Write the structure tokens for this entry.
Amino acid sequence: MGRSGGSPLTRAGPTRAPRRRAVRFTPEHTPAVRDFNQRLARAGAPWRFPETTVPDWLPRVDGVPVWQEYFLLLEAGAVRGAYVLKRQDAVVGSGPRRVGSFYWPLSEGTIDPAYALVAPRLLQAALEEEPLLFLVGMVDRDRPIARLVRALGWRLTPVPFYFKPLRPARFLRELRYLRRRAGARLALDLATVTGAGWLGLTLAGLALRARVRGDTAVRIDVVQRFDQWTDAIWAANAPRYSFVGGRDATALNATYPPQGGEYIRLRVSRGDRAIGWAVLQDALPGSSDHFGAMRVGTIVDGFASPEDAGAVIRASAGVLTQRGVDLIISNQSHRAWRGALSEAGFLRGPSSWLFAPAPALAALVAAVDPSGQAVHLNRGDGDWPWGTGLEGPAPPSTS
């Protein structure tokens, strides 16, 4: 039955649903995007889509091999969905390719079941734009986007999470995401009071640190930007990874703008030769929903030969330790970088940071690396920290 109670058919034939088409976000779409955000906000959805066509992070610039683009799904002029596509150069399988990272998909289907098919249409549109597509980031396996890609035959794999508590008692007391369950809260409180948690974490860390190799020839410099030495590291070592997003100096300076004060950039050298680099973040206490009032240091990104991954991880952990953080965390997928974290005293924890390559991309990687152990992914490959500015409802309508 139709909404008016009459027949859904007319003499002219059945009513056709308006056609939905994917387009790039251009200035004339701004009012429709604003209306879309307001509908989400009125329904209580805690997200919004950018209302400007030029991204404030990774805009398209001539000569820069990584950039963001915004896309919309229109229906009779109304925005019913939107997504972000980050394009970049990469090494995939045996050579250079261009790939795309799909993120921040917003669908009116989250607030109105009449638009349930918007989400798969967004992903289809992204694949048409960039067949070598992937998703990476903090995604709960039960979220709609995760269920969608699994239904399409994409494989979701966690990017392993490692942590190093420098103040174990504080770590146990402040670990919020475990404290959401009453049983876990009691266990953590008992471990804190009795010292069992501190002892367990300390002994585990000591056992792992016993395997750390000293390297007095390594020099660590804090730098303001990446330069030609970065290009040399990239050119020499990129072919040794089965999948790695472009990390030359131009791409890195766009991803981590030199004028941004939130990043710590390290050049790691052995003698007079730069062998690797890292990007770190030292977050203020209380800035994370997961880690409470702890001061958290993050090894965001890094690159080197697999053999020099240990030197980069040790340098990063040493700098963050000297800065007085309570906890150091990192997500790393490559076997050499995971091994380096373990050898530097990091413990492995559960990871909700997932990687899902489209079948075409997965096939290219599997041709040279069936187990995926040489894939190099970390937090620098996601939308972090860009997406943190988009959490929260859109402004209310003033009309």
Q: What stands out?
A: The longest strand covers residues 78-92. Confidence is low (pLDDT under 50) at residues 1-13, 393-399. The chain is about 30% helix and 25% strand. Residues 19-158 form a domain with the Aminopeptidase fold (CATH 3.40.630.30).
